[in-house]
Amino acid sequence: METIYLGIVIFLFMLAVFDLLVGVSNDAVNFMNSAVGAKVATFRTITIVAAIGVFVGAILSNGMMDIARHGIFQPSNFSFYDIMCILLAVMVTDVVLLDVFNTLGLPTSTTVSMVFELLGGTFILAMLKILGDHTGMFSLGDMMNTEKAFSVIMGIFLSVAVAFIAGTVVQYISRLIFSFNYKKHLSWTIGIFGGIAVTALLYFILIQGLKSAPFMTEELIGWIDVHTPMLVAGCFVFFTLLMQVLHWCKVNVFKVIVLLGTFSLALAFAGNDLVNFIGVPLAGFSSYTDYVANANGAGIHDYMMTSLMSSAKTPTIFLFASGIVMVYALATSKKAKNVIKTSVDLARQEEGDEMFGSSALARTIVRRATNLNDFLKRVIPEGMRRWIDSRFNKDEIIMENGAAFDLVRASVNLVLSGLLIIIGTTMKLPLSTTYVTFIVAMGSSLADRAWSRESAVYRITGVLSVIGGWFITAFVAFTVCAVVTFIMFYTSFVGMFIFIAVAVFLLVRSNIKYGKKEKAESRDVIFKQMMTSKDKSEILSLLRQHVKATFVDYLVFSEKTYVQVTDGFINENLKDLRKAMSATDDQKKMLKKRRRKEILGLRRIPITTAIEKNTWFHLGSNSCEQMLYCLKRICEPCKEHVDNNFNPISPESVKEFLPIREELCRLMERTQEAIENNNYADADDILKKGDDLKNRISALRKHQMNLMQEASTNSLKASMVYLNILQETQELVSIWRHLLRASRFFQGDYVPQEFSQMALAEDHI
């Protein structure tokens, strides 16, 4: 029996390693997004600075893991078996939940997930004990600490509201002071700004990051509390002078602030959030060692875990090992980059590829904000408006090549996040590090006018999605952990083993799927180059490559899906028809994203060239879209027909159709080669053969309609579907012919307007 539970404790520590890996990946957004977004240094340098902060924070943590020992449940009322069920369910749920959020690229709170998992597991066992207690001695308050749940929920609302307002106001004031051309307006202000920033960050390190360090005795903490005003004032004077001298020495003070802020937040994260990752397995380890040493023959259901009421004393080896794992995760995790990318993209100064679509709520918010902006324009005097606009002149922006925003905003993000966390700690308000840093970044980007009318609806949808994910985290963590705990409690080792296997399976599958997804997303390097390049001719060349790849991809997809759908109808393969429907819907969403990227590219080429290419770009893009609609119009009746088990298409119809399909595929493949190789020497021949194919299909349609007049009613439904296939096939030929012309003239020299109108009208004669 003891051997089995030793195995469970070992597995808890194995899950803790996974939890550290996925947890650090998620929380990397807390302390790296500003430095990465502003490109204050190379990603490697930023990672090294953050890794040092993480390692120091882990080592200096005194291991006060009491929240996992008795912060949620009252251990004296739970047996050893109860506690092991709760702790194993918490770890299984936590690892899988955080990995899902990392895969989706959404930042979430590790504190919220752990607290609500403990609450869920404790609640279900508490209810079982209360229902099974006939004496009426126990109440829910005797079994669990509900106050912790309310404090976390309150922290969510406070974090969102306070951080967003503060981020917006402080960034707006900072931009008025420095403007986008901040180097022109430094003079003496940079010393004061640097003094405030560095003093705030050092105070943050001292109060928030090192308060639990072993060398921080009660006497030292008390002395710091008494002399805090003097220490803050002295640091402000010293660092104001130091930052001013560094500025005179041509040192970029903003970079110093950003790197120090990255270090301080990383240190505080590791020092205070370490409990979220290793607190639970350490509680399990303590429970096991206490049971083995003191049970004296008592059963696992009878030995109560009163020993967990004492404070934890974590061996240094565990803290050192945790620091190593956290640093490794930070340096190697690709999912960490994905989570950082979400935050950086939502705060990006310029337009680019938007990760999120639009939502009804976001559109309403943008509409109301636009109306409010129009009202303020009427109220604010014109002279003041002109002065404010001059401070927000984006043409003067000083920003690293490829950066999402400038150093001023990055500095504000980090300093303000640290200050808000200090204020929340001082006022005993449970502000979440994740929530504060993310929402401050969103508020500062709004104040910086990064959310234009072209991108605001997408950015707001993204922010709402992330905030919604935070609330979902609490609900899902509570519910899933409660269910897992309930099943484990009644199935004992069988249930525990099954859930352990499920957790391992889900983690492996998640990483495999994420690897495929990342590989697919990493292919679009052309767009990244197009958005970072300053050379107009290079942008045009990259845009042509991007458009060419889009046209080729959709031709390939259309040919493949057309064959899949018609084969599915002929062979009555419902599975293939469903796959084709789903794939077509996915491609429609992907085309929308690709079109937006290419429109952004059109805006960055010379205006005269953009006007010349605009018609052909939209003709080609619309042709891709029409091919998808055409495929769907073919697929839907075929799927319905096969799904209803109606009579199949006649062998005679199949025999006359297959040569038409083969000719269509052959011509589409020639079109693909012409576009891909940018060689249109055979374009006229392809267009002529396409026109001949249309005539053949038209003749076949008339023949089919004549047969339908004579055919029996048993095959009428199949004949109607077949007739629809022929009609849509004829339309598909017209569409890819338009696509070939569009690509030919988009990739080549400008075509006179009268010729373009003649080309567009040719298929309609």
UniProtKB/TrEMBL annotation:
<keyword id="KW-0812">Transmembrane</keyword>
<feature type="transmembrane region" description="Helical">
    <location>
        <begin position="80"/>
        <end position="101"/>
    </location>
</feature>
<feature type="transmembrane region" description="Helical">
    <location>
        <begin position="253"/>
        <end position="271"/>
    </location>
</feature>
<feature type="transmembrane region" description="Helical">
    <location>
        <begin position="41"/>
        <end position="60"/>
    </location>
</feature>
<feature type="transmembrane region" description="Helical">
    <location>
        <begin position="113"/>
        <end position="132"/>
    </location>
</feature>
<dbReference type="InterPro" id="IPR001204">
    <property type="entry name" value="Phos_transporter"/>
</dbReference>
<keyword id="KW-0592">Phosphate transport</keyword>
<feature type="transmembrane region" description="Helical">
    <location>
        <begin position="226"/>
        <end position="246"/>
    </location>
</feature>
<keyword id="KW-0472">Membrane</keyword>
<keyword id="KW-1133">Transmembrane helix</keyword>
<dbReference type="InterPro" id="IPR038078">
    <property type="entry name" value="PhoU-like_sf"/>
</dbReference>
<dbReference type="Pfam" id="PF01384">
    <property type="entry name" value="PHO4"/>
</dbReference>
<comment type="similarity">
    <text>Belongs to the inorganic phosphate transporter (PiT) (TC 2.A.20) family.</text>
</comment>
<feature type="transmembrane region" description="Helical">
    <location>
        <begin position="186"/>
        <end position="206"/>
    </location>
</feature>
<feature type="transmembrane region" description="Helical">
    <location>
        <begin position="463"/>
        <end position="487"/>
    </location>
</feature>
<feature type="transmembrane region" description="Helical">
    <location>
        <begin position="493"/>
        <end position="512"/>
    </location>
</feature>
<protein>
    <recommendedName>
        <fullName>Phosphate transporter</fullName>
    </recommendedName>
</protein>
<feature type="transmembrane region" description="Helical">
    <location>
        <begin position="312"/>
        <end position="331"/>
    </location>
</feature>
<feature type="transmembrane region" description="Helical">
    <location>
        <begin position="6"/>
        <end position="29"/>
    </location>
</feature>
<feature type="transmembrane region" description="Helical">
    <location>
        <begin position="152"/>
        <end position="174"/>
    </location>
</feature>
<keyword id="KW-0813">Transport</keyword>
